[in-house]
Design a protein that fits this description.
Elements: H1 3-29, H2 32-44, H3 58-81, H4 86-92, H5 96-107, H6 114-132, H7 140-161, H8 168-175, H9 180-190, H10 193-201, H11 205-232, H12 235-238, H13 245-257, H14 263-293
Helix pairs in contact: 1-4, 1-11, 1-13, 2-3, 2-9, 2-11, 3-7, 3-8, 4-13, 5-7, 6-14, 8-11
Length: about 290
């Protein structure tokens, strides 16, 4: 991969990794469901006036928006509001890789590879460590909600496979039309009109900047650059870069928010990361070892 594309990949990884710290900043001033509604309003408008709708039936746009946009971030924002630290959130959300494999086996009849099963077992042991520590900083509800966010992301990945070749940026923008109204309904139900009115009337500059980052940097810029990389290189070369997102997430959270993992959480995080690495590279390494032994 040329140096220019490596730099583009680095920009995307940093944008998506720091995204979790920015979510935390946004949640300090806005309740989670309202934050989700405002984020996707900014993603969709006025961009839909400038970007052509992807050539997909509306039912697939609704399915995409309901899973990857609404479901994933409703669970993630609520999880972080309920006590999930940003750095760990960036790591645990990568459970989407294993949910994607499970849904592919369940709905598409795909066979699970040995490396994927081993990776899942290693990652699951790490999650068990993170969730088992007495008096730890991660409430069980927050951990479960983050895993639900990963599951919604994984389900959205299966839906996206049905699309074939599609403009990823247009998909994100037009899919952003789906979440605002459900997010507002959830906000009205869970957070109440008084809290919504108070949050909007007293919105701070930090919340405004957080919303701008989430909509324009993490979403539109991030997916635009990622789409450009996928158009130039095979997905197998581009996708492994996403493994660096939780590294940036953990590092930026430690640097900017002072997030510190306990020893147990640290070992759990390492096991989750190891499981992701086994899932991505295990089959390739196994093939090379068999070739060498032959």
């Amino acid at each position: 991969m040329p140096l220019k594309d490596l730099l583009i990949a680095l920009v995307v990884i940093v944008a998506w990794g720091v995204n979790f710290v920015v979510i935390k900043v946004g949640l300090d001033g806005l309740p989670p469901m309202l934050l989700g509604a405002l984020r996707f309003l900014l993603v969709a408008f006025p961009a839909i006036l400038l970007v052509k709708r992807p050539q997909l039936p509306w039912r697939w746009l609704v399915a995409y928006g309901a899973t990857i946009s609404l479901g994933q971030f409703a669970f993630l924002f609520q999880a972080m509001y309920s006590g999930m630290p940003p750095g760990l959130a960036s790591l645990i959300l990568q459970s989407q890789a294993f949910f994607t494999l499970g849904f592919a086996a369940l709905f598409l009849g795909e066979r699970l590879r040995l490396a994927s099963v081993l990776g899942l077992l290693v990652a699951a042991s790490g999650l068990a460590l993170i969730g088992s520590e007495d008096g730890g900083h991660v409430p069980m509800l927050a951990l479960v909600l983050t895993l639900c966010g990963g599951a919604m992301w994984g389900l959205g990945n299966i839906i996206t496979r049905r699309f074939g070749s599609v403009d990823l940026v247009a998909l994100v923008i037009w899919g952003g039309l789906i979440p605002p109204l459900p997010f507002l309904a959830l906000s009205w139900w869970l957070e109440g009109p008084e809290r919504i009115g108070h949050a909007l009337a007293n919105i701070s500059w930090s919340s405004v900047l957080a919303l701008a980052y989430l909509a324009f940097v993490a979403t539109m810029l991030g997916y635009s650059l990622w789409s450009k990389l996928l158009s130039r290189h095979p997905a197998g070369k581009v996708a492994p870069f996403s493994l660096l997102v939780p590294v940036i997430g953990l590092s930026s959270s430690a640097l900017l928010l002072g997030e510190r993992l306990s020893a147990t959480q640290g070992w759990g995080a390492l096991l989750v990361m190891a499981g992701l690495l086994v899932n991505v590279f295990g089959a390739r390494i196994g093939q090379r070892l068999r070739a060498v032994s032959a």
